[in-house]
Amino acid sequence: MFLSIQHITFPIEDPLLKFLLELIIILCIPLLLNKIKVPHLLGLLIAGAVVGPNGFHILSRDSSIVVTGTTGLLYIMFLAGLEINMGDFKKNKWKSITFSIYTFAVPFLLGLAGGYYILGFNMLTCVLFASLFSSHTLIVYPMVSSLGITRNLAVNITVGGTMITDVLSLVILAVVVGMSQGGVGSSFWIKLSISMVLFGVIVLMLFPIIARWFFKNVQDKISQYIFVLVMIYMAALLAELAGIEAIIGAFFAGLALNRLIPHTSSLMNRVEFVGNAIFIPFFLISVGMLIDFNAFFKSWETLGVAAVMLGASIGGKYLAAVATQKTFRFTDDEGKLIFGLSAASAAATLASVMVGYNIILSENEAGEPVRLLNEHVLNGSILLILISCTVSSFVSMASAQRIAEKEKENTVSGESEEKDKILLAINHESTVEKLVNLGLLIKTKSNHNSIYALNVISEQKNESSAKNAEILLDKTVKMGAAADTKIIPITRHDHDVVSGINNVIKEQHISDLVVGLENDKGFSASFIYNLYKGYLQNKQSNVLIYHAAQPIATVKSYTVLIPANAEKEPGFFHSLLRVWNISKNSGAQMIFYSNENTARILKRICEKNNIEAKFNLIDTWKMAQTAAEEIDENEGLIILMADRGMKSYFEQMKEVPEFLNRNLSRNNYILIYPYRALNETAIEKRSVANHDDFAEIGKMISRVFK
User: What Cα–Cα distance (Å) separates residue 484 from each residue in 264, 431, 449?
Assistant: First the structure.
């Protein structure tokens, strides 16, 4: 073994040793740099330069590095599209467009002037040269996402602007390449326009249909993850066929699957984990391998070109961020975060440079090729990537941490803080996964260890055995762990199931009880008896009755029925928090049906915590039934079963289970019974009496819906 080690040659060719060295770099660099508060992104770039062909040449940048690095780049763009809040994006689309105009035009104009007047490039080269600085890569997005501020408006419009600027810069690349080859005419523009439209239609309209069918029919978790990878690469390939870069395809794939991969789901956790652990670090190492420090000492011209590129790119992005901050009155930290996120140049810049470098326009007198972008621009772009990623890392993380700390401070409200304890009643194996998925959607973001799973072993009826309870709860705990959420198992011996559940609710101070209906049974006579004579006797807990005909992630929208005077219930706003969390975490649209007074309250909440919602006015329960009957496939129903709201239709309230069994056996539906008695931790204590006072409601909403 010692002799074999002595005969190791560089670059290392042995695949086992090569992969081991790469994993050691990925493991050690973050651990070392975290201690000195340096973003590990920078360390991976430098490590790639040190071990790469232009450093000690320990590793070569071969096909294995390129493939995993390319996947990492696609992953970054895919995650950006996947995690964007579509409701916020639609609401703030004009802000994103404004930002994209700033961040595209300012660096482009600076680059155009620098290339033409300082470096003396011809106009065609100048246009391509300037486009290098207009795009940006969200290379620090995974780190910002880990701080939990992806829903911040500054982050939202930056991500939205990225899509626009990258598309524009890559369209310029396609046009310049066509002009350099003499192929730009009416046919070129028609072909490019048609191909881009077809690409958008296929990815944004056809991909969701395919994905929804797949997730409904294939429950295997590994297959679901592989399917996501297939969608990423398929969209990237379609983008290349359409004449644009693969990274745009990956971003559009994220948008297409946005509503089908809930942010709190186990699949989302797998997607983020594998990307952040393997693919994205490989991408950073592969980019670092392109860095050649020797090139900057060989020619002063290279340093001059690099200086112009740095000034146009980083200076232009800074000016664009300042303009955006002033236009929309962002805080200083938000303005710096916009600059930090948009300052990094890697993906589209590298792609454009390599394409321009490989285009040979002619030959000089010495027989050397005259390229569209010369080697000085190529070397300068590598320095631009290194410095811009460094600046992006430090600025983004510093400002993002300050924003996260401020949001955390605003969330804390002392003794009045919402205490979120969810109890899943696990009695049947067929409902385990459905209940866990719902529990993950309705919980607040900060709740990582306040979900309980209960199985009651009845001593009288012997409805469940200890062995069966162990199997069910073990499955529940594992599902929670897959989504990075701790579920606390409870096995209880009691004389019947209902008494066992009610006693645990009192002992653990449960805020929400979630009970699942078996799909083939629905509301049976015994279940209705247990509901009204048992579960609803706990007046200090919400009760959610859940019927799942399909995976909750595949539901496109929910019809939400709210009866008149429901807002007078003590648990009304607590119940709405569950509805809001379902929409925020799954991306599903909420279509509310209520009277005018309740609709005003709902719209007020939407102003402070935006979700994708529509509002319809109804006056009678008959109108609500009509709306429920019109629900289509892949749509769901939520009904707030408020006592005060239902008092005038008490007979209809008893008819709801029969109505659901008859009309919605193939749809998902949730009945929410708000708690009816205030307790010590009730957040509505001060506001429920004055529900018409929007100022008071606004204060409560700001505290609860963080």
Answer: 9, 20, 10
Residues near 516 by Cβ (< 8 Å), separated by ≥ 6? Answer: 425, 427, 428, 431, 434, 435, 546, 547, 548
Contact partners, residue 38, CB within 8 Å, separation at least 6: none
Residue found by looking up tokens 């980019």 in the block: 287
Crossing angle for the helix pair 572-586 and 596-608, to the nearest 10 degrees: 50
> Which two three-digit tokens encode residue 490?
């409870």
- Cα 705 from Cα 583, distance rounded (Å): 12
* Rounded Cα distance, 367 and 542, in Å: 80
Partnered with residue 456 across adjacent β-strands are: 492
- Taking only Cα atoms into account, the Rg of the chain, rounded to an integer number of angstroms, comes to 29
8 Å CB contact between 561 and 582: no
pLDDT in tens, 278-301: 888 888 888 788 777 776 666 677
**Taking a C-beta distance cutoff of 8 angstroms, is the pair 49, 288 a contact?**
yes
* pLDDT tens per residue, range 82-111: 877 777 677 778 888 899 999 999 999 999
Q: What share of the chain is helix, strand, coil (3-state, %, to 5)?
A: 65, 10, 25
In this structure, the number of other CB atoms found within 10 A of the CB of residue 462 comes to 8
- Show the tokens assigned to 310: 């740095």
Unique residue bearing structure tokens 């703030």: 92
- In the sheet that holds 422-425, the strands lie side by side as 487-494, 451-458, 422-425, 512-517, 542-547, 668-673, 635-640, 557-561, 589-594, 613-617
User: How far apart are the two ends of the chain, measured CA to CA in Å?
Assistant: 59
- Tell me how far CA of residue 553 lies from CA of 340, 400, 438, 548, 702, in angstroms: 33, 30, 10, 11, 27
Q: Which neighbouring-strand residues pair with 337?
A: none
Nearest Cα to 619, choosing from 587, 583, 645, 643?
Answer: 645
Residue with more model confidence, 247 or 486: 486
Bridge partners (DSSP) of residue 559 are 591, 637
pTM of the model: 0.77
Sign, CA torsion 462/464/470/471 = positive
Whether 617 contacts 595, CB under 8 Å: yes
Cα distances (Å, whole numbers) of residue 219 to 79, 211, 212, 225, 433: 22, 12, 12, 11, 10
Distances from the Cα of 246 to the Cαs of 83, 217, 229, 252, in angstroms? 19, 29, 14, 10
User: 3-class SS at 132?
Assistant: coil
* ∠ CA 527-531-532, rounded to 5°: 125
CB-based contact 547:660 (threshold 8 Å): yes
Cα gap 397→337, rounded to integer Å? 8
Using CA atoms, how far apart are residues 125 and 251, in angstroms rounded to an integer?
28
Pick from 370, 254, 378: nearest CA to 309: 378
Cα–Cα distance for residue pair 81/63, rounded to 1 Å:
27
DSSP 55: T
Vertex 571: Cα angle to 551 and 568 (nearest 5): 125
3-class secondary structure per residue, 80-118? HHHHCCHHHHHHCHHHHHHHHHHHHHHHHHHHHHHHHHH
Under 8 Å between Cβ of 599 and 566: no
Kindly report each contact of residues 176-180 with a partner whose C-beta sits within 8 Å and lies 24 or more positions away, as own/partner.
176/124, 176/127, 176/128, 176/131, 176/356, 176/372, 177/355, 177/359, 179/124, 180/124, 180/359, 180/361, 180/372
CA nearest to 636, candidates 666, 662, 611: 666
pLDDT in tens, 37-80: 666 777 887 888 888 888 888 888 888 888 888 888 888 878 87
**What does the alpha-carbon distance between residue 637 and residue 547 come to, in Å, rounded to a whole number?**
10
